[in-house]
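User: quick one, fold this
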Amino acid sequence: MAPALQRALTHFAEEVVAITGGFARSLSKPESFPVLDTRAQVERGFNAALTQFKQTSGPLFGFVFGVTMATAGFGVDFVLGRGAFWAYPPTDFSSHLIGYRAYVNDAWHWPLFETSTLNVPVGLNLLYMDGLPLVALFAKILRPVVPSFLHTVRANPFGLWLVLSYGLQGAFGALIVRQANEQKISAQICGSVVALSMSFFILRFIHPALNSHFLILAAIWLYLRTAEHPSPIRALAQWSALLVASLLIHPYLFAMASAFFAATACTWIGARRFVRGGLLVLGATATVAVAMTLSGFLGDRTLRGGEWGFGYKATDLASFFVPQWSPFYPTRRHGLVLEMASDELSEGWAYVGAGVIGLSILVAAVQRGRAEFVRSLRRHPAIALVLACMTLFALSNRITVAHFAPHEFELPPGIGFFTRQFRASGRFIWPPLYAGSLWLVVVGFRVLRHTGAIAAVPLLAFVQWLDGLGNFVFVRAHTERGEMRYLEWDRWAPIVDAHRTVDVTPAFECLKWPLVLASKVHLELEFMGASAGLGLTSVRSSRAIPDCGMSALAQGRQTDIPEDRLIVLLAKAIPDSQSAHFERLGLACYRFQFGIVCSKQSLPWPTGFTLYHAPIDYVPGTRVDIGLGEANARLGLGWSFGENTHRWQVGQAGFIYLRPNRALRPGARLHLGLGGALLPTRPTMTVNVLINGLPASTVTVTDGDVHDVSIKLPARAIGEPVVEIELRPSDFRSPASVGPPGSDTRELGAVMTYLSIVD
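Assistant:
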């Protein structure tokens, strides 16, 4: 865009210089002053510059149009990162901001995008927070020199990034049309308008990094630019830059750009440019490998991660023709209404737009249009294959039409890793739809060039734009206000600010449905802590692989809590009696509306926080029947429901808490009715018993009976106000894992009937 404009202006300047020289030479010969020739030269120079500018200004128009559209659509406050929305934005935005701010404000670590203030004490890579790593890297480098008036933007660049994405979306839409040998400015403008009007682009604003669809268009443009006119050094530099940029913005976009890169390499090799193709592949692959190593992309969360979703986050065939928000379909009573900011099915909803549908009908109705389709397939077989594969992957093995799946195909072997990594397969419909829509613009101008029907192409592009604008009804409604708050932030602010680390239990990924309220409170505490620059022991991330059993076990086995750590136990997700563990370690605990909060600090706790002591009082010598409901208040983590005569401990450990009503005498003993779950593949097991964190006894179980066990309490436990009993089985496994279908799915370890302390 800029070089072409520069060439046009240079040409015009050369004409001006020539004219000036002619004037100078004619001063000595006034009679030969070339008035008419000079005027002709000026006109030729001006016309040449104007023609060149018209042919090359499409990308400039697209950029300006995209920036204007985004600024008007989102609003100035949203763009500049201020206002009620950004004070506490919805779920995804909150996660992105938490990751971005934690990384930018942290010290440098290795790998490059690692931050120590998230997932304390292990740390977390920003790549798993969708926090615009590439932008965050530059913000971190420039942090010491950023002027104070830019600090707001540095702290929250997501609005500006969306505006930039819109600008580049429009520019690359025009560049693709121009690269396809369509030089008319009207055609380039239509390409920009169509690229900016796709509903799946406008509605993806909830993920600013993933909304960087200009990277997809850049890959299409670069394919067209390099596939037929290869310049090895330039192509290597351009593809390497694009692949690394997409890698450091979002992995899905990296996968899509990589597919177009593969098509380019195949085209070169297919044209017998073996050396050039090989160098391109090796050079770009080496560059990406270095970027992956430096960034920490190949961490455990990438290599071992893999979640549910493939086949259920796919593209619905009906979505091509059914809008969610459209001025041409003013109601949403079509039975396929989705919450586009949170519904799993929205991932692959790909309404193409009224203008594109009209363009496809127009081009298909013309014989030359059908011929152009066949010609394009023959000319670009590699890209056709790539787009076909993306389409099939987007549809997945579970083809759906209007939410109905008539059949589910078995996945071919060997692609399980890929389907787990890219479980939201519906996103891969974006490149085929972009390529197809812009191809329709190019072919429409090409086959209708000398007919009156050519006016239909810009008209349909305008219709497409109007159709796309309907999506801003949802966008603006979503960004007018922030997320609903369940906590009173003015009361929590002094509590949070008094600490350096916020420890919310359980980990966010271990919260199970229907504990939606606990998840929302968890995210609020994360956002408050991150806004205050505190460390977070648990955080919502895009790639989660926590061992929830280990997380709970580690939480229950802490032997010391620093004074600067705030502990929050979420109600219904963690037993209230687990607060006794922290009481034993010297923390004061307070109940609030959604759980229990504990701290070592003497704080002026505000109204709404009441001092809490777990109801675990115990009279020595009293028998506690573990299988009955009266024992529930004394049970911490790791227990199943009571079964009258007994109760199973599940998972890696189970905790019991007792607060004797008097000091225990030396020599006090703990009596247990204890057994274990023996299975055909596990004929024996051991149960380690720990009291107040100290090993007290190891019980070997060789039969299915429950035995009476007597254990002497360690001296330290006798001197503490709370007795914490931990059962740690050597193995825990569900009968369903070794038995017939329908067997018990609980991971059974030890089993208990009663306990008592006798001194």
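User: anything notable?
Assistant: Residues 489-611 form one domain.
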